[in-house]
Design brief:
With about 250 residues, the protein is of the alpha/beta class. Helices cover about 20% and strands about 30% of the residues. It is globular, with a radius of gyration of 18 Å. The protein starts with a strand and ends with a strand. Bound molecules: flavin-adenine dinucleotide and NADP nicotinamide-adenine-dinucleotide phosphate.
Length: about 250
Amino acid sequence: MSKWLEGRVIENRRWTEALFSLRVQAQPLPFEAGQFVKLALDVDGERVARPFSFVNPPQAPLLEFYGVVVPEGPLSPRLARLSAGDAIYLSTNPSGFLVLSEVPDAETLWLMSTGTGLAPFLSILCTDTPWLRYRNVVLVHAARFAKELVYRELLDAIERKRGGERFRRVSFVSREAAPGSLSGRIPAAIGDGRLEAAAGVQLRPESSQVMLCGNPDMLRDAGAALAARGMKKHRRRTPGQITVESFW
Ligand SMILES: Cc1cc2nc3c(=O)[nH]c(=O)nc-3n(C[C@H](O)[C@H](O)[C@H](O)COP(=O)(O)OP(=O)(O)OC[C@H]3O[C@@H](n4cnc5c(N)ncnc54)[C@H](O)[C@@H]3O)c2cc1C
Ligand SMILES: NC(=O)c1ccc[n+]([C@@H]2O[C@H](COP(=O)([O-])OP(=O)(O)OC[C@H]3O[C@@H](n4cnc5c(N)ncnc54)[C@H](OP(=O)(O)O)[C@@H]3O)[C@@H](O)[C@H]2O)c1
């Protein structure tokens, strides 16, 4: 049984018709960057809850969550309609293993995401940890349309702070031609070398750790493409290179 605390929406930023970010004021919640918490609303007398990854780093004054409207979903369309001042419930037990304390050291950290799977990587990138432990950090974000490549200002600020040489950004846009982004999907570009070429960094088991987040089909297909390069899931007892979190 989850315990709940009540938070207050401070801002609902709409990026597109389907994409939104909620800023929420709530009691401090201890968590590690990359983890998630359940967000909930009361719908027809029942509390409807879903996991959402923190976008903000630990100890930020406001909590932030990045979501997409799944039109037929019970919670996401309601979250997208919230306004400043509205109440929202948060579970008191952040959790999840898509965290750098579970990932071994390496030369290069690859963070690969589809859609809202970007969220936990923003939190991680806002902390010092990746920059202290990895020489290169490559963020990969795949979206259907160019307008869905969100949080560019935040990423630009991180790049200015950490240096463009160490922070490589690669985007994919799959359903229209978009200058500056690769076409197609992440797994195919792992397979044919386009991803490495765009990042300017080698994707090898000896030098890389890969975190994957988002669409479960991407996790499966990217996992297979990485396996073809000699990588395997990282487990505490059997170390490897791949750490994943599926959003559904
Ligand atoms: C560990 C974890 C962390 C998550 N973090 C986030 C997050 O930071 N932001 C976020 O938007 N969602 C996140 N999700 C998904 C989220 O919990 C909900 O499933 C989503 O908001 C839709 O809720 P819903 O009740 O409207 O529909 P649901 O009944 O939960 O989902 C219906 C269907 O919508 C699709 N779907 C669900 N989530 C997504 C998504 N994010 N993008 C595209 N299609 C989706 C799937 O096909 C799913 O079967 C996370 C899920 C998990 C397990
Ligand atoms: N995004 C929108 O404009 C929009 C609008 C309204 C509602 N929604 C709802 O949101 C959900 C979809 O959200 P989304 O677009 O963020 O997520 P998504 O469907 O997971 O797509 C995000 C990216 O992941 C790619 N992808 C899908 N399967 C993959 C695989 N097996 N391997 C590698 N990459 C893969 C997609 O490529 P492909 O394009 O090749 O599939 C796309 O580039 C749906 O429920 C939809 O109803 C979305």
